[in-house]
Design brief:
The chain has 171 residues and is an alpha+beta fold. Helices cover 39% and strands 29% of the residues. It is built from four helices and seven strands. It has helices at 10-14, 16-36, 43-69, 137-150; strands at residues 2-6, 71-77, 80-86, 94-97, 101-110, 115-123, 128-134. Strands 1-2-3-4 form a four-stranded antiparallel β-sheet. It has a three-stranded antiparallel β-sheet with strand order 5-6-7, with helices on one face. Strand 3 and strand 4 (94-97) form a beta hairpin. Helix 2 (16-36) runs antiparallel to helix 3 (43-69). The radius of gyration is 21 Å and the shape is elongated.
């Protein structure tokens, strides 16, 4: 069985691009200053800062593209649960023995301006394995329920698990 969803909203992904462009511009100005022999500063330090900004810009641009284009697929077959992300390689592939999964649950994390929802698998023996992170509570609930249905697990409360407000269940 295959369960798919989008990991991040496209709006959030687009927010990365202005930052990538501005750091690339700053890097370009630094390279131009070194190339033209700017007498006000040390050319080696300026070049190092420019290269660092260029590397940061490339990383931010790659992250933004991954957020914009990627979706998450959870495949359950042959006694395995595999969570993969694509088409742009970004996060590590999660591969678990599905027969050892006792429960799937959600932990809500709060950042400065938003929430993220992390899906975990409780493994027999008490260990916890992170499966994936999404930014939408509805998507997290859908994935949790779909995985539990596919693995024929009954929903049980796990300590520190996030439970939604009742109105979220009515969608």
């Amino acid at each position: 069985q295959r369960i798919s969803c989008r990991r991040f909203s496209r709006v959030k992904a687009w927010m990365f691009f202005p930052f990538a462009v501005s750091t690339a511009r700053a890097s370009a100005w630094g390279v131009i200053a070194v190339w033209c022999g700017d007498p006000r500063g040390d050319p080696v330090a300026t070049l190092l800062v420019s290269i660092s900004l260029l590397a940061l810009s490339a990383f931010v641009l790659y992250s933004g593209l991954a957020m914009l284009l990627n979706s998450v697929a959870i495949e359950i077959s042959g006694g395995r649960l595999v969570a993969v992300q694509g088409p742009v390689p970004y996060a590590r592939r999660r591969d678990l023995d599905a027969t050892t999964i006792q429960q799937v649950y959600i932990i809500r994390r709060e950042s400065r301006h938003s929430f993220s929802y992390r899906l975990y698998a409780l493994i027999r023996g008490g260990s916890h394995r992170h499966l994936l992170t999404v930014e939408d509570a509805q998507v997290a609930l859908y994935l949790e329920q779909a995985i539990e249905r596919a693995l024929d697990l009954k929903d049980q409360v796990v300590r520190s698990e996030w439970r939604p407000e009742p109105y979220l269940w009515e969608a």
